[in-house]
Write a structure and sequence with these properties.
Length: 213
């Protein structure tokens, strides 16, 4: 960025100097009694005109750098929200399908979830929903309708829908077809690891916004 600014300032000054040299040579020099004074005046005018041009260049450069910094801030925030969203939904996935607490959920049974477990799961769910919304809001401002952003956002919603379906059945003690209910669980593994794969792809896109320009 600094090299770019210096180059722009140099080009601007040389252009002004060239313009003033032409004006001085054809209009002022023939009429000037003191040639040295005419040349000094040319440099003085060039410097005077250069001041507003340099201020404009510096202002535009500041705006450009400010926008770059804003993009970096947004992408860092979006990655933080994505990490937290996946952590929260992954925690719920672990509790209902991997940890010993899975006995409450799989295979289908009528066991009542303990209040402590229920409160913890719903707390993690609230964190997921909050960070999912913030991820969508911050990431979309930078990457727009990028295909990889759409994929990971859709995958998050898809995985969340499957998790919520299971939680609703257990929390509301709904009667369902046990066979159909049990068939959902193996897919959770695929959904979760596809989500992690999409996360890696999105992070690669995000990296280009974090490169110092």
């Amino acid at each position: 960025m600094q090299i770019k600014i210096m180059f722009q300032l140099l080009v601007a000054y040389l252009c002004l100097l060239g313009l003033m040299s032409v004006i001085t040579y054809y209009l002022i020099y023939p009429l000037a009694v003191d040639k040295g004074t005419a040349i000094a005046t040319m440099f003085g005018w060039s410097a005077g005109l250069f001041a507003p041009f340099s201020a404009l260049i510096l202002l535009n450069s500041w705006k450009e750098q400010h926008n770059i910094n804003l993009k970096k801030d947004f992408i860092v925030k979006s990655l933080d929200h994505l990490d937290e969203a996946i952590r929260a939904i992954g925690q719920i996935y672990w509790l209902i399908y991997i940890n010993d607490t899975k006995d409450y959920f799989y295979p289908y049974n009528q066991k009542i979830i303990s209040q402590q477990l229920d409160e913890f799961i719903m707390s993690e769910h609230s964190k997921f929903v909050l960070n999912l919304g913030n991820f969508h809001k911050t990431a979309r401002r930078i990457v727009g309708e990028n295909a990889k952003f759409k994929k990971i956002y859709n995958q998050l919603n898809k995985f969340h829908a499957e998790i919520i379906k299971i939680l609703d059945i257990k929390r509301k003690c709904l009667e369902v077809d046990a066979k159909e209910y049990n068939k959902q669980f193996p897919y959770l593994y695929d959904y979760y690891h596809e989500l992690l794969s999409q996360k890696e792809k999105f992070e690669k896109i995000a990296q280009k916004y974090l490169i110092v320009e």
